Amino acid sequence: MEPRLTNPAGLLPDVGQAVNILYKSAHTAGVPGSVLELVHLRASQINGCGPCVDHGARAMRKAGETDDRLFAVAVWRETPYFTEPERAALALAEYATRLADRPDAVPDAIWDEAAKHFSEKELAAIVLWIATTNFFNRLNVTTRQQAPANY
């Protein structure tokens, strides 16, 4: 499958600066980088974003993530590899990514579980990073961007 056009974020010069600000905001709020990477990877898997899944998994491996955890992100509920805070963040990522799947898009129980593990500032960063990931997923999937072929 060929891309429909060059990545829109690269064609519009102000987008890069805006994304850098979003990235910096999410990654300087005190949330462990591994949690942000997990929610990025899970949302990208749900949305079928090849470039983001590829990049996310490679970045996590480069940061020292184990294959057991990487291979299990899509089935995190059925594995022992994730901490309670990570599980809460993964659940939040799934619900915030699948907003139209249920009348109460992000139920109180999902939010409350995440709030047990993260401060308001950290929750804001996680939600911002989930939204940013979904933004990139939608750009990439709509324009049929591909994961790089040469690594």
Automatic annotation (TrEMBL):
<feature type="domain" description="Carboxymuconolactone decarboxylase-like">
    <location>
        <begin position="13"/>
        <end position="94"/>
    </location>
</feature>
<dbReference type="InterPro" id="IPR003779">
    <property type="entry name" value="CMD-like"/>
</dbReference>
<keyword id="KW-0560">Oxidoreductase</keyword>
<dbReference type="Pfam" id="PF02627">
    <property type="entry name" value="CMD"/>
</dbReference>
<dbReference type="InterPro" id="IPR004675">
    <property type="entry name" value="AhpD_core"/>
</dbReference>
<dbReference type="GO" id="GO:0051920">
    <property type="term" value="F:peroxiredoxin activity"/>
</dbReference>
<dbReference type="InterPro" id="IPR029032">
    <property type="entry name" value="AhpD-like"/>
</dbReference>
<protein>
    <submittedName>
        <fullName>Alkylhydroperoxidase AhpD family core domain-containing protein</fullName>
    </submittedName>
</protein>
<keyword id="KW-0575">Peroxidase</keyword>
